[in-house]
Amino acid sequence: xxxxxxxxxxxxxxxxxxxxxxxxxxxxxxxxxxxQAFSAIKLSQGLNFTSPNGDIIAHNSDDFKKxxxxxxxxxxxxxxxxxxxxxxxxxxxxxxxxxxxxxLRSYNxxxxxxxxxxxxxxxxxxxKNLEGDSTIITFKCVGDxxxxxxxxxxxxxxxxxCSCNPCELIVSRQ
Length: 174
Known about the structure:
Distance between the termini: 55 Å
Number of domains: 2
Shape: globular
Largest sheet: 7 strands, mixed
Helix content: 25-40%
Structural class: alpha/beta
Radius of gyration: 22 Å
Strand content: 25-35%
Strand order of the largest sheet: 1-2-3-4-7-10-6
Order of helices and strands: HEHEEEEEEEEE
Oligomer: single chain
Mean pLDDT: 77
């Protein structure tokens, strides 16, 4: 009985070390994947991260890349390059249209906004993750080559949807 009481702390110690090592190795893999995605994103020269009314999407290109990485939960597409950022006129905040290309598609759109009055086109939303407290919300459409984010701005709201069917509008809070 006394031997088993002495061995119990030793076994707990060994188990703790094993779990710690396993967790450490897993975390390094995730950091490595994120760093690889971070370096794979290309940004064209002269992109402006500040809206005409002074709201800022990101303070620098690294912050902007972090937003992009979080927008693609399944990973940033191969050959990802942001080619243009344009801003739509909204009463408060910003609504940015991010144009990008990938190895598979020469033209894609991602919308990013911090405008609070949002609507979704009927029958367009498939996935929505609005958990968290960030004010940044991204919209992207996934589907055929004609599938692009589109929106309508009125005095009191922005309505987002996709340009064709079948398309999947993915909405996520950053």
